[in-house]
Amino acid sequence: MARMHPPAIAYMQRKQAGGMSYREALRSLKRQLARVVFETMLKAERSAASGRVVRACFRAGDAAIAV
Predict the structure, then answer these.
(1) Of the candidates 32, 34, 26, the residue with the CA atom closest to the CA atom of residue 9
(2) Three-class SS of residue 57?
(3) pLDDT higher for 16 or 64?
(4) Rounded distance between C-alpha atoms, residue 16 and residue 24, angstroms
(5) Torsion (CA) 14, 15, 19, 24 in degrees, nearest 10
(6) Residue 1 lies in a domain
(7) Angle in degrees, CA 61, 52, 59, rounded to 5
(8) Does residue 63 carry a pLDDT above 70?
(9) Distance CA 4, CA 33 (A)
(10) What is the per-residue DSSP string for 10-40?
(11) What are phi and psi of 4, to 5 degrees?
(12) Largest separation between any pair of C-alpha atoms in the chain
């Protein structure tokens, strides 16, 4: 966990406090990241299909991912 992003560490701690093991919490974090990446890809594809250039910003706790 030493090289994790601070919001990811907080997410893991919340999941573990809720009764998940470290591995279960890590699996949950990976699923959450996959959902964000997939949503970003869909939005980019839709904007490309419509001919528009769209800037998207996704907020996950204190961190923002700009595309």
Answers:
(1) 26
(2) strand
(3) 16
(4) 8
(5) -160
(6) no
(7) 0
(8) no
(9) 13
(10) HHHHHHHHTT--HHHHHHHHHHHHHHHHHHH
(11) -80, 150
(12) 46
Q: How many CA atoms lie within 13 A of 25 on its CB side?
A: 16
Tell whether 60 is covered by a domain.
Answer: yes
SS3 5: coil
Domain that holds residue 12: 6-66
Number of domains in the chain: 1
Measured distance CA(67)–CA(62) in Å, rounded: 17
Residue 47 amino acid letter: S
Q: Examine residue 12 and state whether it is found in any structural domain, yes or no.
A: yes
pLDDT in tens, 11-50: 999 999 999 999 999 999 999 999 999 999 998 888 888 8
